[in-house]
TrEMBL record:
UniProt KW Metal-binding keyword: yes
Cofactors demanded by this protein: [2Fe-2S] cluster
Name recorded for this polypeptide: CDGSH IRON-SULFUR DOMAIN-CONTAINING PROTEIN 1
Alphabetical keyword list: 2Fe-2S, Iron, Iron-sulfur, Metal-binding
Domain of life from the UniProt record: Eukaryota
GO molecular function, one term: 2 iron, 2 sulfur cluster binding
PANTHER family: CDGSH IRON-SULFUR DOMAIN-CONTAINING PROTEIN 1
Cleaved signal peptide residues: none
Gene3D superfamilies recorded: CDGSH iron-sulfur domain, mitoNEET-type
Length: 107
């Protein structure tokens, strides 16, 4: 088994290769398994580090809800929507990442 690890943007990528046989196929066919897991490191190394939490708001004319928060920490269980996972991430890493807020423009 070969193992390669690449750490980039807070993720660890590992790839292992194993052999296997698919049903109805006589010859062995190699299969790949890819594992991606989040590392506990800062996502935002330099943008607006003087702020407690980096949150940007964008006003949108046509939006079904008055406010929609999109994840920028990549930890949300409801990705691409924010579920507040950045709070735990920020405490663990000292980071200051927050969501992107889409707000409906008032008519």
């Amino acid at each position: 088994m070969s193992m390669a690890s690449v750490s980039s943007a807070g993720f660890c990528y590992s790839k292992s290769r194993t052999g296997g046989v698919r049903p109805n196929i006589a010859a062995a066919t190699p299969r790949s398994l890819v594992v991606v897991r989040a590392e506990a490191q800062a996502i935002n190394p330099e943008i607006r580090k003087t702020e407690e939490k980096v949150v940007d708001s964008v006003m949108v004319a046509e939006l079904s809800k008055p406010l929609t928060a999109y994840c920028r920490c990549w930890r949300s269980g409801t990705f691409p929507l924010c579920d507040g996972s950045h709070v735990k991430h920020n405490k663990a890493t000292g980071d200051n990442v927050g969501p992107l807020l889409l707000k409906k423009q008032k008519e």
